[in-house]
Amino acid sequence: MVEFKDVLASRQTVFAYKQALSPHFVPETLPYRELELRRMMEAIAPVLEGQKAKNLFLYGKTGTGKSSCTRYVIQKLDAEQKPSVKALYMNCRVYDSRYKVLQKVIHHFHPDFAKTGYSFAVLYEKLLDWVEEEARQLVVALDEIDMVKDLDNLVYTLTRANDDLRSGSISLIGVSNKVDFKHRLDARSRSSLCEEELVFQPYNAEQLTGILKKRGAQAFKEGVLKESAVNLAAAIAASENGDARYALLLLLRAGELCDEKKKADVLDVDVEASRKAAEEEKAFEVIGTLPEHQQLLLYGLATLASDVTYKRLVEEDGDKLYFSGEVYERYAATVKKLGKKPRTSRWYREYLKELDNLGLINTVQSGKGVRGHTTLIRLSYEPERVKQVIEQKVLGE
Ligand SMILES: Nc1ncnc2c1ncn2[C@@H]1O[C@H](COP(=O)(O)OP(=O)(O)O)[C@@H](O)[C@H]1O
Ligand SMILES: [Mg+2]
Hints:
Largest sheet: 5 strands, parallel
CATH class of the largest domain: Alpha Beta
Shape: globular
Bound molecules: adenosine-5'-diphosphate, magnesium ion
Oligomer: single chain
């Protein structure tokens, strides 16, 4: 008979513990962030001696380790097991107003307090009572704090609460991916929130290599992940803002591609393929948001390019380029088939420009000889896939 354990055992995979590459995984150590962690812990440490922490504000581009460091510090604080010290991490994508943040804090520490129906004033009083009750030192980490709608109110309320407290304290760790965010705060909230400020710099290729090696060693079976793959993923991510999340995603996808193809090793070619897939995904999202006639133009080009019997094209370095006039005819035919009217060729040229700017196509002017001067068009992505995407998204097939 078939048993699950046999099915699992016979399944071929390069992964040992795939979760180690997930964005939700909190690694045990965070290399290259010792200095940042130390500064954060210095700001927070007073709570362990019964004093208020300094408010702390972290910012930097996505994937620079801000959320991970924040979680790490909160975990370490909890691990001290000091009964009067209470810490909570939350993401403001979910808790995006002063009311929701307050409600979350109270509900987290006071699960039997009913969830809804209280006015802000009641919640606020409740919070102060709870802090004073045992002279608690509360640290609230607000990740992606820029998502909070009434941000100035929130910061003002939570920082000024300390003036109303007879004992205990409330301190904030604010985190933002938006580098210019600080200037959106009014002066008063800014100076209270940014008592201590820390910028997270993008990782360079060498640091990303170190991070990927470590995470890769946990995620993949021994010997499977080759150095060439790690180096390429690190180099690509370093050139894209030093984003560790993207670097990890590239490795994860590369591994998944290997599993699909039943390959035993993860190499640089797999990382390259995974980058292509990631880019394609982004491009296809863009296609979905284009104005209708640009989508139909692209569709016309894709049908032309996927027609293997079609011979009126120019080949250049293995790429196929199509004559602008022919593409227009296909576009017009597609539009008419839908019972609509094609746009004029003046509009058509505008559309070409826009699609070129978005990187979905590439236009070049032909030299003399090929029917005088004419525009040639190359489709940036695989025609069959482009057709599929437009058929699904636009034509609803
Ligand atoms: N120093 C590091 N060591 C190991 N993994 C890291 C490190 N910095 C970031 N990461 C990983 O990169 C991803 C993005 O980090 P994150 O903390 O979410 O960045 P941010 O909050 O700045 O966007 C996460 O999967 C995280 O585990
Ligand atoms: Mg983050």
